[in-house]
Amino acid sequence: xxxxxxxxxxxxxxxxxxxxxxxxxxxxxxxxxxxxxxxxxxxxxxxxxxxxxxxxxxxxxxxxxxxxxxxxxxxxxxxxxxxxxxxxxxxxxxxxxxxxxxxxxxxxxxxxxxxxxxxxxxxxxxxxxxxxxxxxxxxxxxxxxxxxxxxxxxxxxxxxxxxxxxxxxxxxxxxxxxxxxxxxxxxxxxxxxxxxxxxxxxxxxxxxxxxxxxxxxxxxxxxxxxxxxxxxxxxxxxxxxxxxxxxxxxxxxxxxxxxxxxxxxxxxxxxxxxxxxxxxxxxxxxxxxxxxxxxxxxxxxxxxxxxxxxxxxxxxxxxxxxxxxxxxxxxxxxxxxxxxxxxxxxxxxxxxxxxxxxxxxxxxxxxxxxxxxxxxxxxxxxxxxxxxxxxxxxxxxxxxxxxxxxxxxxxxxxxxxxxxxxxxxxxxxx
Length: 430
Fold this sequence. Notes:
18 helices, 0% strand
């Protein structure tokens, strides 16, 4: 006997469900709680506490910048490649991009902390480390030579100029893609090929521009904390890392929204499984690039390069390095290998949540050993807890803003050519 399956129908109301407001309220409460905690910890540890507050701010900035502008990159990648996953993730990714004003605020705040963080912005930090016995004469010479050599780029004026240019470019792409998306929504399905080509044209070049501008900013924010070290794939590592964390957040968002309409209708098991595989690909690429950098530098064993890893392995940092490998790569890789896990909503959300935690843990390992009081000397202080309090507060505030943006537009683009296919029942038999 023939089995006839009927296509599902989208609900009339395509806006975000009411429980998104509860997410926003909860995020704001967490932001307030951890902001107070961060300030208290800073006072408990005195000068060192405020130093760690500033260092942790960099972790929070880079993490939330990854969600916002990483979402922009993944949105452009979707427009270039096409596919059904765009229908599911387009609105969440657009919402991520529209949080850029908050990232600008975080960046401006970092500008006022520069003299606590960067030797190129405050050469007096070199003298402070010398007075504490943290630097040898050879290290001091190397640092001062590097500061002088890199001065055309690493100076306060250029920091602000380059930052303003980069944020202006990202703001343009955010505005343009979101505006075009609304225009496409108002147009007819017959004009879809025109819009596909239009999005492809702007997004292909946009990905290249973003890769270059993002690399410049992570050099300023993170790599220049150690003025003597450099890596030619540093920007690429962060670019892939952003895809890693954005896909994790997009999975959490999509699956959580599927508890109610309209995502309850459009998120089928097939697309959920495909998103899990896509995330798995970024886990592997992230692992490959990080290991490649380590292998090349370790095998070369050059004094100006190898010290960066020695600072992050010796003095009990080897424990953090091992945990970082397990948290950031081994655990997500092992979990996402499972076909059953990628088909299970609850377990897939847990894996994605773990990936975001692991990304923040990796940023701690990247940032803290840049400072001579911590390099090859992992030790506990009240200030070190700022690496929990500050990024959590900043991320919670960002999540609240993200939820606001999710509520501002319909969650489904009704004139997408893949909509009819995604509304078909799975395993339909004619």
